[in-house]
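Discussion board: Methods & Data

I've been asked by a reviewer to show the raw model output for two of the constructs in my manuscript, not just the figures. I'm not sure how much to include, so I'm pasting the format here to get opinions. Each protein appears as its amino acid sequence followed by a line of discrete structure tokens. Is this the kind of thing reviewers expect to see in a supplement, or should I convert it first? Here is construct A:
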Amino acid sequence: MQLVYVADPLCSWCYGFGPELTRLLERLPQAKVDLVMGGLRPYNTERMSQPFREMLASHWKHVGATSHLPFNEALIASDTFIYDTEPACRAVVVARGLFAANAFTYMKAVQTAFYRDARDVTQPEVLADIAAESGYGRDAFLELLQSDKAREATRGDFAVTQSMGIGGFPTLAVSYSKKLFLVASGFTKTDVLEERLIQIETLQAAPQAK
């Protein structure tokens, strides 16, 4: 089973959805996941306004209540923090290129660092530290992270997301016969994900059974 997961590490609903997807993969050990970075707020250069900061904090409380995951608002309370999601997306692209099977684990580590621990994952050195904690070579990871190749590959992911018409994250799809079928758009519980996958698989198998 080939799943396609379109997400942004700094999307709070993607953070909340992570444990649900992890449980699904534990139930379906044969499934593989292709990560595609969506680009929630890429290339942003402006500091957060107070109204935006308050809106974000309120949103995080909602996600936390739904997912039961911890959120730490210390970083977004800072006047100097710039909420640019491109560096974290680029780091996941680099992790995927180095060791695709570990990319989802790395992305979850970045999310935990940002949302729970308030580490500034817009900074290359922090992303490289997390990579080292996740089993990657820090220096090689940092060098790739800052390369034009990684920046171009990340823009490629954003372009793929746009070409699929996806504007919200998380989005999960499954591939059959080179076609993608939507499994979930937005936070979805594991049981529902599993039910939808069974429904899609049944529908795809039905014509062959005749």
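Construct B, same format:
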Amino acid sequence: MKKEEVPQDKSSLSKNKITEVCYAVDENGNYTQVASKGWEPKTIVQNETLHVIEERIAEANENVKNGIASPIPYFMELHKMDLTILSDYTGYWKWRIKRHFKPKVFNKLSQKALKKYANAFDISVDELKNFSGS
């Protein structure tokens, strides 16, 4: 792409006057860095992704409210984590974390286990234990 062809569409970045760096070919045929305000297709994909994440957070919240799941999946979604990431933060195997999704199992977790989750989610143990859906 040529330097003058770098997209300058409105995006969520442009609200904050943030630009992203793109590489383009200048008039001498050399690659150069060019600031871009955004690109409409990329903005559409980002907005759709955020919408999907918001839906997953809302669903996890409802599952906590209805007693179907513990707060762990809610906070995972809220912090955009998956089982692998949470496993890395806590040191628990993925199957064990899935087991902690069950309210009966979650309610029996030790303070030490709760502390690991609370640290991973950057909240207090009390917030984690007492979360019943927002």
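Answer (T.O., handling editor elsewhere):
This is acceptable in a supplement if you add a one-line summary per construct. For B, something like: The chain has a mean pLDDT of 90.
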